Amino acid sequence: MNFPGKLTSKKELFNFKIIFMKTHVNYLVLVLFLLIGTTLTAQENAPGRIPDYEVPYEYPSVDGIKNVLNRVRLYYESTSPRIIIDSETGKEITEFKKPNKNALVSPGFSSEWSYNHGVVLSAFEYIDDVTGDPAYFANNTAFYDLVIETLPYFIKNREEFGEEASNGWGRAPNFRALDDCGSIGAAMIKTYLKDKNDDYLELINIMSDYISNKEFRLEDGTLARHRPQYQSIWADDIYMSVPFLANMGVLTGDHKYFDDAVKQIIQIAERLYIPEKELFDHGWSVTSGDYDPRFYWGRASGWALMAMAELLGILPEEYPGRDDVMHLYRSMIRSLAGLQNGSGFWHNMLDKTDTFLETSCTAMFTFAVAKGINEGWISHVYGPVALTGWNAITTRVIENGAVDGTCEGTTFAHDNTYYYHRGKSIHANHGYGPVLYAGAEMIRLLQNDKIEVQKARMNARNITFHFRLKSEWPEN
Question: What is the DSSP code string of 120-151?
Answer without folding.
Answer: HHHHHHHHHHHH--HHHHHHHHHHHHHHHHHH
